[in-house]
Protein: Ribosome maturation factor RimP
Organism: Nitratiruptor tergarcus DSM 16512
Amino acid sequence: MSLEQDIKNIVESCGAKLYDIETVSERGKTIYRVTITDKEGVSLDKCVQISQLISPLLDVHPPVQGDYNLEVSSPGIERKLKKLSHFENSIGEKVRITTIDGEVYEGELVGVEDKKITLQTSQGKISIDFDNISSAKTYFEW
């Protein structure tokens, strides 16, 4: 079993879903970031609980070489959409998509089927091929 699968199992055993795992460098420090979601919202207590369960696993199977900090957090209201599962879990939310050729679309995410992302925009429905997306994120209108 892979490290990501082990982490996913831990997250799910706590009643949450694994959203993403990434290694980033911020202010000269390496951060191994585990992002989780929960239908009832992600509390600080839930992040601490999951962090305490993942930490011993990472002591045995380090995710990166050298020093790093483990961070368990929520993706937030405005979050990047990188995987098809991210889009599937964001149906009903407002998204901004930039395609490989630089076109930008905004609207409500209404469907994901056969690697096609469907938005309801002010100009009507539009489908975008997942492989043609250079970046995407949810956004919140105040």
Q: What stands out?
A: Residues 3-73 form a domain with the GMP Synthetase; Chain A, domain 3 fold (CATH 3.30.300.70). The first strand starts at residue 17 and ends at 26. The chain has three helices and eight strands. The two ends are 43 Å apart (CA to CA).
